[in-house]
Amino acid sequence: MTLKEHSKHSKIARPAYGNFGRNEWAIVGAPCGAIKALADVLIKELSPRYTCAYVDAQHAKADEETVLPGRLASGAVAEYTDQIHYHQFDIKRELNAFQFRQLFNETDLVLVNGNHEQAKAQVVIIDEAKKASLQKRLLQLTNIALFLLADGMEEVYDFLQEAIPDWQAIPVLKLSETDKIVAFFQNQMQQVQPKLKGLVLAGGQSLRMGQDKGAMQWHGKEQRYYMADLMREMCQEVYISCRAEQETDLDANYNTLPDTFTGLGPYGAILSAFREDPDAAWLVVACDLPLLDAATLQHLVEKRDTSVNATTYVSPQDGFPEPLIAIWEPKSYPVLLSFLAQGYTCPRKVLRNSEIHLIEAAHADTLRNVNTPEELEQVQLLLQQKTTY
Questions:
Q1: Are the C-beta atoms of 316 and 367 separated by less than 8 Å?
Q2: Rounded to whole angstroms, how far apart are CA atoms 36 and 18?
Q3: CB–CB of 39/54 below 8 Å?
Q4: In terms of domains, do 175 and 160 share one?
Q5: What is the mean pLDDT of each run of 10 residues along the chain (389 residues)?
Q6: Measured distance CA(310)–CA(200) in Å, rounded
Q7: Residue 249: which CATH number?
């Protein structure tokens, strides 16, 4: 008799993490000095566009005494020091992949010294000085992205050719061709840019308005559908966020995404979207913006900065970020969850305390929302007067 595999845990979509982040490469096959030098070049060239990180290890020799820094030597488990130009955090405990992913969450790419740590993709340097070491690491070479030939090396080792069936499909560059190596990584980062999906927030109860704002018709059709149609031009997929009991009443021609984080308003809707697809970026738009047009949305998409948590408009009313006309990047998902764990469910508070890209709308009225009958009258007057901007 064959026993079925039993799982008592709910299956949900998991982000495409490695050991440290979504995009990570272990550089292996060369002395540590050469790996660090290559990492320095890559970080210098890529950091203006991407948030970069580096992972390494320093192992004391067997006969050397380990000396703990600062107050860790006195028994503290952690010490934070504001070094003015940078910040230092020393911690006296082992960290696992789950904790590393939190620490590196807001990075775009992580370079790893493969002599000490592993990553989900590898850059293999063909260097005679580390040939024997590389042979011992064959099982760690699970996803080779690039071969680099050190000075004096002409081809990939025979043992690598035998162990990797598709080795000829992997690009080969010389380690000295730094411009080409940088271009390779730039291309890699462009390929992994998170896809953009759309989320129309239509799950509110509209208590102040007295009627469902998503069902109101300002442009010849219900606003939730009008907005979804606008967003289809710039998003891979568009979903209408709703409460579970609303789903059956919505037009079947539109994708729906019922809240799975209930009772949290828009905050729960954004979290529900990331639970659906944690590797996508979400263009989140409220359904109570009758003056919002395609040009304003397109401007937001064109100004998108994937290296921060979100790209959004500055509110013309108070100067704060607009959380419900914003592109939330995948790296914001753990941030939102961490704020929730601390008892906060205000998406604007998350934006105000995170790395974001703020832009201004060409026409402030396009960001104007409607929550009350009085505001509705004002906007209806503007719609009547509006011709073109």
A1: yes
A2: 21
A3: yes
A4: yes
A5: 59 94 97 97 97 90 75 95 94 94 96 96 97 95 97 96 94 98 98 97 59 72 93 96 90 94 95 98 93 95 97 93 97 98 98 97 85 62 57
A6: 17
A7: 3.90.550.10
